[in-house]
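This part of the workshop introduces the protein records we will be handling. Getting from the letters to the tokens is the skill we practise here. The record below serves as our worked example for the rest of this section.

…
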Amino acid sequence: MPRHDFLPGRAVLGLTFLTVVAVYGADESGAWHTPWWTPVPVLCGGLVVAAAAALVGYGIRRRCRARIASSEKTDDPASTSGSHAIR
């Protein structure tokens, strides 16, 4: 059993940031020249893709949890809220 759910949105966002760091690292080492405006479209595109991945992952987790909850055969006891109390 995993300790936590896999969050694909965070993974995509992390890969986006690592891409920007790698591009600027290569620019700093002299491997190629990168314009100053490069991270803006990369980060915006990465945010959009990360949001889409997060929504898809949330939908999958929600559907799986609903399926597991509906397959459990537990009967809840009657309510004892006192709404039918005897006076």
Observations:
- Residues 39-71 form the longest helix (33 residues).
- The helical segments are 8-29, 39-71.
